[in-house]
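Async update (no meeting this week)

Hi team, since we skipped the sync, here's where things stand on the single-chain job. The sequence we agreed to prioritize is pasted below, unchanged from the tracker. I ran it this morning and attached the output directly underneath so nobody has to dig for it. Comments welcome in thread, and please keep replies under the output.
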Amino acid sequence: MTALNTYRRWLARVEDDALRAELSALDEVRDAAQIEDRFYRDLAFGTGGLRGVLGAGTNRMNVYVVRRATQGLAAYLKAAGLPLRCAIAYDSRIGSPRRGRPPSSPRRSCGWFRPPARRQSCTDARRQNDPRP
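Output:
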């Protein structure tokens, strides 16, 4: 499948409003090089994890790429007979929690879901551990 065909497929199927707006703003002729860069390959998982430019496309970091990587990891763990366990971490990058826990996550369909614990700030943790009234 060519990058342009992948772009058209994404444009027809994307549900995230911000990503849809980003893709809709691209012109197939004028922005051909940008479309090619966004869709010519899947974002690579390297030694530093899954990292890339934020944005719409298979070669960008977004909720769809994270979902696909999560699905792949769960399938590998199941096939290898390993426990379906992982740690989900967030960092300071824009949208990190949204990409870490995307809606309709494949984790649920893989039997790999535990409702998220209540997020706790450092201040809340100190209050709980403070013996003073």
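Quick observations from my side:
The first strand starts at residue 45 and ends at 46.
The first helix runs from residue 3 to 13.
Reply here if anything looks off.
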